[in-house]
Design brief:
Rossmann fold; four-stranded antiparallel sheet; 8 helices; binds adenosine-5'-triphosphate; ATP-binding; ABC_transporter-like_ATP-bd; ATP hydrolysis activity; ABC_carbohydrate_import_ATPase
């Protein structure tokens, strides 16, 4: 790679009491790529993306975005910097509408009296924007933008979460297990959305246990093992069973040692 990574982590450490979830972990995401992050249960994948998206503060190490050192202390900081993350839990309010969920925490407000803190929400503008974004991403099955999120199917909810991330993630979109618990058709749609985001030039980090999905969409695969990056492979160079063998420690890629 001749380009510089857009998002880079070096020597990241995160401890939870006696558990070391991240053990001097390195990470590189390059512009315009879909980077899958795979690893066994408990390998530290979620801890890694939480550190990159401000949900946890690493105990050690350095993160840079476009070459600038960043010190996120919350996901709000990361969002302000253009990094959007869809966590496994989706972080949506089921009783609120699709439009309200898309704007949660960054509501548009009507112009008010100068200096007024009590500016009214600009509902029409938010609905218009939400509709435009969902249409742009081909989520035409959602008829009513005012529909409560709790009335949507799992796939539609995931679609709204991905649409929200894609709409506001100007620099990086992170998706933690976006196809887990989805049916075949719904998973397909989410994979298409992921490709769609990439085609708009936004790089994506995809955490997934689903090897066929990973091998289908990823440009590169970061294999995470025991709290650190074991290696990065190209899906064209290895089989799915190789990847699983690497992440479980059954075998190592050529030239890689476990201590690396
Ligand atoms: N909030 C927490 N408190 C205590 N331990 C934690 C916490 N979060 C993660 N851990 C521990 O850190 C380690 C790494 O967890 P993490 O969730 O990052 O792994 P993962 O690779 O995402 O796992 P999975 O694939 O099962 O989701 C695990 O041993 C886990 O139990």
């Amino acid at each position: 790679m001749t380009q510089e990574p857009i998002l880079k982590g070096r020597g990241l450490v995160k401890r939870y009491g006696k558990v070391t979830a991240l053990d001097h972990c390195d990470f590189d995401l390059y512009p315009g790529e879909i980077l899958a992050v795979i690893g066994d249960n408990g390998a530290g994948k979620s801890s890694l993306i939480k550190a990159l998206s401000g949900a946890v503060v690493p105990d050690e190490g350095e993160i840079t975005l476009e070459g600038q050192k960043i010190n996120f202390t919350s996901p709000i900081d990361a969002r302000a910097a253009g990094i959007e993350c869809v966590y496994q839990t989706l972080a949506m309010s089921p009783a609120l509408s699709i439009a309200d969920n898309m704007f949660m925490g960054r509501e548009l407000r009507k112009p008010g009296i100068m200096g007024s803190l009590f500016r009214k929400l600009d509902k029409p503008a938010m609905e218009k924007f939400a509709r435009a974004k969902l249409n742009e991403l081909g989520l035409m099955t959602i008829q009513n933008i005012n529909q409560a999120v709790e009335t949507l199917s799992g796939g539609q909810r995931q679609g709204v979460a991905v649409a929200r991330a894609a709409a506001f993630g100007s620099k990086v979109v992170i998706l933690d297990e976006p196809t887990a618990a989805l049916g075949v058709k719904e998973s397909r749609r989410v994979l298409e959305l992921i490709r769609d985001v990439r085609s708009r030039g936004i790089p994506i980090i995809l955490i997934s246990h689903n090897m066929p999905h990973v091998f289908e969409v990823a440009d590169r695969i970061h294999i995470h093992r025991l709290g650190k990056r074991l290696c990065v492979i190209k899906p064209s160079d290895y089989t799915m069973s190789d990847a699983v063998a690497f992440m479980t420690g059954a075998k190592l890629p050529e030239g890689v040692t476990e201590a690396a």
